[in-house]
Amino acid sequence: MSAPAGDPDASPVRVLVADDDADIRDLVEFKLTQAGYAVEAVPDGVSAWEAFSANPPQLAVLDVMMPGLSGIDVLRKIRESAFAGVPVLLLSAKSRDSDVDTGFAVGADDYVIKPFSPRELLHRVNGMLARAR
User: Fold this and answer.
1) Alpha-carbon 86 to chain mean position
2) pTM higher than the cut 0.90
3) How many CB atoms lie within 10 A of CB 60?
4) Which pick of 64, 77, 96, 97 has the fewest CB atoms within 10 Å?
């Protein structure tokens, strides 16, 4: 996913990953970096919004339950920003239908329940970015 076919000088696709669980954050960052993405990984919602605002990525992966601002809060801010069209995937241990419904109602493009398969997450990210192009 680093450069589109025929454009070797293109920058890698940038993905913001926000999760307060360092193990999950590191796993997602590793898997996406291994696939050729440029990943910025942050530990909380406030850092996620600051990073997004400073340099909007092509896709964001947000944990729902984070200190400061939740992933839902960050998603709301993204959808109200000039970069509202950036695809957002929510990660969450919250698996009730109402939790998933809330994520989509606020504007998530996808919702992955923890624990998850890193391979499945990568497929979902790839699909979201392909549709966004």
Assistant:
1) 9
2) yes
3) 27
4) 97
